Amino acid sequence: MKIHAIETGLVSVKSRQRKGVGSVGRRINTLLDKTWTEWLPIYCWVIEHPEGIIVIDTGETARTSNPSHFPKWHPYFRLGVQMQVEPEQEVGPQIKKLGLSLNDVRWVIMTHLHTDHAGGLSHFPESEFLISRQEYALSLGLKGKIRGYLPNYFPKWFEPRIVGYTVGEYGAFRMGYTLTKAEDVLVVPTPGHTPGHQSVILRDGNITYLFAGDTSYNEQLMIDRSVDGVSPNTNLAGQTIDRIHRFISVEPTVYLPSHDPMSKERMMQRIPTMIS
Ligand SMILES: [Zn+2]
Questions:
Q1: Residue 276: inside a domain, yes or no?
Q2: What distance in angstroms lies between residue 210's CA and the mean position of ligand 1's atoms?
Q3: If you measure from the C-alpha of residue 111 to the centroid of ligand 1, how many angstroms do you get, rounded to a whole number?
Q4: What is the pLDDT of residues 195-224, one digit of tens each?
Q5: Tell me, what CATH number does 21's domain have?
Q6: Cα separations (Å) of 75 from 4, 71, 72, 78, 255?
Q7: Residues 6+ apart with CB under 8 A from 235
Q8: Does residue 275 lie in a domain region?
Q9: What is the distance in A from the centroid of ligand 1 to the CA of 259?
């Protein structure tokens, strides 16, 4: 199956967001950190599946270069994040450049609704969006804005389908949702970075891909069981990382977080993650 890594620009966050520090004051520690990460890719993914094109996350938009795009009253947007996105880097133009039609995108699976994943929603008015119930609920309204979502930029027509997880053959994840008739694309809950965060499993012959969103900022941090510095519940995030470890230990899996500079290379070379 053909998979494309689409880099929709760059993001930089505080070093302590990538690798959390402390316990109670963890999220404050992140905001007050004076050091920034290097520029990191904002990946989304396109799978040319026989049942229709599947897109995972929609990346960021060039509107972020407008200084008034982000709410000034929000400490995270004022202190904690920087973006660089050119218009031609948005997911829509990039899919067209691959020779694919946006109208042929059947499903868009959202790992979560933070702006660097949901910025490109408007490119897919004809597609069916899949999101976890909790993620969608937590993103809406003023409370959603306080949590760091930007629901004011969701398109008017945005009415995602809520994914119904059931117990089944999802390995260490136990619960999940099988999207395709071929039973090769699965959506599994991976709470942590956000309480409603989910990931996507693609089983392609003898290799499995895990499109992991922001379960960690890179492969090494997942291997080290390191939780990021913005997860509201570090225990839950740690449990998800444990599940990923157990899943990977029984099934050779290419681990693909959204902001790992090595994700594209691992996907193209089909390099599974080794946990010793
Ligand atoms: Zn992200």
A1: no
A2: 16
A3: 9
A4: 999 999 999 999 999 999 999 999 999 999
A5: 3.60.15.10
A6: 34, 9, 8, 5, 31
A7: none
A8: no
A9: 7
